[in-house]
Amino acid sequence: MTSTSTPSTFTYKTVGDLDIELDVWIPELDSATPAHLPALVWFHGGGGFCGDKGPDKSQWFEQWIKDITVKKNQHCLISANYRLLIPTTAHHMIEDIKDVFTFISQKLSHTPIPGSSITIDPTKLAVGGDSFGGYCARLAGIYAEPKPKAVVSMFGMGGDFLSPFYLTSITDPAKMPFGLPLRDLSDPKLLAYYDRTVVETSTLAGQDEQMRPLGGERQELYTITLQKGDYLDWLTGVKGLAETLKQNQGAESDEATKWLEFPSAAREVIPQFLLTPSFPPTFLLHGTADSAVLIAESMTTERQLKDLGVETQFIAHEGGEHGFDAECKVVDGDPLYEELKPVEYWLKAKLA
């Protein structure tokens, strides 16, 4: 029998001397029996600045997602790293996301996972992610080949990068994610956090018992950029973009006008402008009390996709903060699992 306790790790691409990796978790099957299995490709969160494919470095590794995929649905789970923001941008992430799917179709589709006879069926792929990983999943639904059959976004970013949440600097501590304190943005030490020249694909994520960031400076960049209101500058690589948008956008601006206000160099990384009727069926999950990624992001995506005629499901977890699913146990009777169980059935049906 194959084992689900540890993944097989692959380098799916090399940039310079930097290896970028993914993990493949497989179900317990008779190792002598060839199996061509569906897979869920998962991208981690961390605001784009930190995180890891997990679970050894990521407090936010979606254990329940792994369990419903590998144990319940008997599918494979592929958890991938990608180049992190600063000095790279979302443009580089699109390249990485596309290369994950190319690696699956060209390598994992015909080369068995070590210790098994399991290969991945590239015609039966879903994609998902939590937080920033939900943004990556949106990008995969737009750019990846082979095209995923379904998208899962757990409290995902990228639903509305034009909201005041991203464009307005924070002066009220009550509006900081997780109730974190405001930072002194004039502090030279803080500003030095942006001076990063080394490309990275993996850091620790989460907090210790004293709520100190395990990812250090990288982890703090998300809340700092939100406080400054310049997150889009770093995502798109267009310096001054956030300030330009703040000045140009009025209450009467429609989507077409907003699109024209975006420089061409930034448009391809903003999912809300790129959704079409061919976007995959999508399942959105979001806590109603999320302070790090507002539930309005998922609501905006749901509205856009339904207007386009794309099949969309949505679970809004009442009172849930960012990462509300962390305590979910895949055991019948667990209240959170019972609420989230439709995701399991939906993915199984989409990859049948």
UniProtKB/TrEMBL annotation:
InterPro entries the UniProt entry points to: AB_hydrolase_fold, BD-FAE-like_dom, GDXG_lipolytic_enzyme
Alphabetized UniProt keyword annotations: Hydrolase
MF term (GO), any: hydrolase activity
Ranges where the BD-FAE-like domain occurs: 22-145
Pfam families hit by this protein: BD-FAE
SUPFAM superfamilies, A to Z: alpha/beta-Hydrolases
Protein name: Alpha/beta-hydrolase
